[in-house]
Amino acid sequence: MTVSVWSGLEADVLREAMQCGEAEFAKLAGVSERTVGIWKLRGGVVRLRWDIQQRLDRLLSTAKPLIQQRFEIIRQQSPGRVMLTPRAPRVRIGLFRCWKAVGYLHIAYQAGRSRDAMAMVPHVLGHTEVSPALASSAHHVASALCLQLGDLPAATVAAQRCHELAQASGVAVHIAASARSAVRVLMREGKNAKAMRLAIRAADFSAGKPKERSVRGSLLLLGAIAAARCGNRAQAHALLQDAAAEAQYLGRDANFGWTSFGPSNVRLHQADVLTTLGEPSEALKTTVTLENLTAERQARYFMERARAWAALGDPTRALNARKQAQWVAPGLLNG
Questions:
Q1: Where are the domains of the chain?
Q2: What gap in Å lies between CA 301 and CA 282, rounded to an integer?
Q3: Largest pairwise CA distance in the chain
């Protein structure tokens, strides 16, 4: 019996099958009790590090047949599996179900399940007219997915529609959040100076609530990467510092507004900036608490390490890092 990719959901199912408490299972898995709690809380959104996945593989393969049977039964019956294979409603839906469908779209994307997310996009977009804010959020995911697939024209159209719908909502935080799609499209086009200016301008709004601070912080991080690509070292570090201040206010890794923003995400972007500015050795010293990140961000962490190792002329370690990224989110890298 094997699990192709372990998520927090499968890990918690194994814990239940073994009839372990969180503290006992944490020792067996070689993680903290808090991490086990995160797996239970966030389920299929959380993808585990490759070494933890290997330990869980060993736990499952060496378990008694009764435990393995119990694992398979609980896994099949677990209601949390909807987080791994979300499906959009098939009929015209109301506001609440529309919100739920858009949420599943974000979950699929953040779990590194690009194919599932892309399959959902047409249906979800067809039912979001009940709310400009939800429609804008759905178009944001659509733009990100198109960029992953290398379809820049489609990503541009989705980003434009995302911004138009956000403006129609009249809510400042939604308008600011929509700018993230435009910034990413500009960066993909190589217009990094323009992307940096847009990110800074969009982040200039009154941010007091956690969601507002998360959106502002994510814009500052994008601006920092754009500045680094322009060779503007001072501006890049200044934007990172501002983003770190927002993360410090939150005090934890969170996912307000589907931003995955928090201290770990700031350090992830810091590594990106350092490598871009020609300091790969410093980038590799950046530590990130991976279990607090979504699968998509965990994969990006390993891809950044691969880029840093490649810059240092070590293709073997670069390849190993890329393999780790593929292990965490195979759907993300395989399209």
A1: 8-80, 294-335
A2: 14
A3: 60
H or E segment at 99? helix 95-110
Confidence at 166, pLDDT banded by 50, 70, 90: very high
**Which residues are bridge partners to 47 per DSSP?**
7
CA gap 126, 286 in Å, rounded: 42
Cα–Cα distance for residue pair 52/45, rounded to 1 Å: 16
What are the residues whose beta carbons fall under 8 Å from the beta carbon of 292, sequence distance 6 or more?
Answer: 38, 252, 253, 262, 264
- 280 residue type, one letter: P
| Rounded distance between C-alpha atoms, residue 10 and residue 81, angstroms | 9
What CA–CA distance (Å, rounded) separates 60 from 80?
Answer: 20
117 neighbors 105 (Cβ within 8 angstroms): yes
**198-226: per-residue pLDDT in tens?**
999 999 988 789 999 999 999 999 999 99
Structure confidence at residue 164 as a pLDDT band (50, 70, 90): very high
